[in-house]
Design a protein that fits this description.
heterodimer, A: about 170 residues, alpha+beta, Nuclear Transport Factor 2, Chain: A, about 20% helix, globular, B: about 425 residues, Rieske Iron-sulfur Protein, Naphthalene 1,2-dioxygenase Alpha Subunit, Chain A, domain 1, 2 domains, nine-stranded antiparallel β-sheet, four-stranded antiparallel β-sheet, about 35% helix
Chain lengths: ~170, ~425
Amino acid sequence: MSITSDDRTCLAQAEELLALEDRLLRDRQFRQWLALFTVDGAYWIPVSPAQTDPRLAPSHIHEARPALDARIERLYDARVLPQLPVSRVSRLRGRPWLVSNQSEGMEVVSPFQVIEARQIPDGDDDLRIFAGECLYRLRPAPDEPCGWRIKLKRVDLINSESAFFGVSILI
Amino acid sequence: MNISNEAIRALVRDGQVHSSVYTDVQLFALEMERLFHRRWLFLGHESQLPEPGSYFTGRLGQVPVVCVRGEDEIVRTFVNRCTHRGAKVCQGTSGKVPRLVCPYHGWTYKLSGKLDWIPLREEYTGAACDRLQGLQEVAAMETYRGFLFASLQTPESSLSDYLGHFRSTIDNLVDRAPGGSVVAAPFLIRHKYRANWKLTSENLNDTLHARVTHSAAARAAQLVARALPAGQMDQTLSMMTANAKPLEAFRDLTQVTEAGGHSYFGAHMPTGYGQLQEDYADALARAKGPEEAQRILGVERHVGILYPGSSWHARYQTVRIMQPLRPDLTEVIGFVFRLDGAPDGLLESALNYCNGSTSAFSTVITDDLEIYEGIQRAAEGAPGWLQIARETGRRAPKPGTGSYPATSEAYIRNQYNSWLDALCGEAA
């Protein structure tokens, strides 16, 4: 794919958006994070990279609003059982690359590694790695500082088929 | 195994159970041998095996098995172990093969399990020839309305007797399909937790924990629901807030216990998905006639527990396997089924439930897993008697069914009745 100067501009904007997303998740600013999505935006963690449609088979998460609102509002609650105390999360993000760039929007993919530390006061503390690639389907949003909103965030974990222990953080 | 029946019986007394049932390694081995290896267990669905050579792997208790459709269309279940050196014959979770070929030395089995070819056959002589065997087939395998059940050892009862009244829950799942059959979705979903398998069985019909354990999720969902435009509601929010009902509302629901340890209680999550529900009801009425459609949709049950291995939710088209791995490690595997002839959106509604009740990332299940793991750690560090006495007055008649308020712990006592029968070597 040949890269045009428009592509470079778009990719730089996407990079800015993803950096903002990481900062918001790091700071537990979940409402501001959700505001990065379009009103019909969806957050999807499939159980297999081969999954093409979240409406045909189960997913670890496939949610849009208002279910996503409830997911993040729960994280603000002081009494979320598996978050006592709240997990500490380290997020590493690789540079995104452009998958497609058309008039209705662009798609970028970015590799990530998220490390979660969970204290279990009377048990063995948990240190877990979530790694994989995120696909972002972005839509132009001239009113946004970055110029884009997230229509779909698809998180492909490298171990997506695994049986996970409970996960309460956002990837 | 040196635990006497007397010692096993002493672990369960009137309205109490001893926490060592969650932790004891010998008891776990007995549970596998006498409960999981001698009862019918749900393995999967025939739609997962569309043609000869289709297979999927699974477990019956501690034993890895493979389910294969033969050239003769018959589905058989084999221990997934080569009879030569014990290597795993079928790899991965599913696939399609012309023959079952061991990846170690190439021993080859027909889809019927019979030995087809071995290397250097001529070098086996005398008694060694007699020991050249096909794959070990499980003692019993049967299909009930498309669902595959198997028992490693000769089961105590026929599948039909084992299911008993629970057949009506499975019937209801299939009857809900206007086209008359259900099809397994192409992917399964799994989670696991560091605690005993029974903690799931003992939680799935527990209505009292919902408003306490899941309170943060319910508060969050209520907050979001209040901000929605009037009249608009979302299924996921409804499911999260349904948990916050007052105890009296749960008590008004009915819990049904059945011989064999099975149970269910009346549905407590809202039914209305507006136009989708109406379109679906119309399709069902066209296919089955209005009266039969009404009867089918009138069977409103929340999670049914088919003891000991699986749980069933007909209305949300979801079945889950509870797979013990160790006394303190359990895997749960979720299947969702598409109803033939139903509008497409109905599967999405089922998926909302299946994901919410089986995903490790669920805003609700994560609470339950935290509880189970806490119970397990306490049982290991501070063993003692636990209470299962609520609503002790009315005991489940045996055999047959018992009926209780859905706030009763009768279903747990019913499970332990069946557990004792199995572990002490008596028929269910």
